[in-house]
Amino acid sequence: MAEKTIGFIGTGVMGKGMIRNLMKAGFALHVYNRTKSKADDLIAEGAVWKASPAEAAEGADVVITMVGYPKDVASVYFDNGIIAHAKAGAYLIDMTTSSPQLAEKICRAAASKGLHALDAPVSGGDVGAKNGDAVHHGRR
Q: Taking every annotated instance into account, which residue ranges of this chain make up the domain 6-phosphogluconate dehydrogenase NADP-binding (predicted)?
């Protein structure tokens, strides 16, 4: 089976632990963060830097977002972002705590492009993300 590529947007407190666990599991990680220096350690560990959410989404089998606020979620998914650039059949997973209305908007837009969207906010903090036992609450 070919290596799966994951685009990951958001290398903050929660994202970093998740990215490291995904790399340990053997996935190729393409990462983006508004402040590149916050991803430098991950790049040194093998993640590939991408200059925008759109670039992180291009060619990825799965795109995961873990950003700060609903406005950040909207900006990375829309405005020529993830939905416009993800490959057909890709899975889009938003782990940000956001609004149901925004999750539904993303799901509709993704479906219209042949993408699969999942709203999966997490709890467990940075320790849960680092240890790989953060709790995910998903819905399509």
A: 5-133
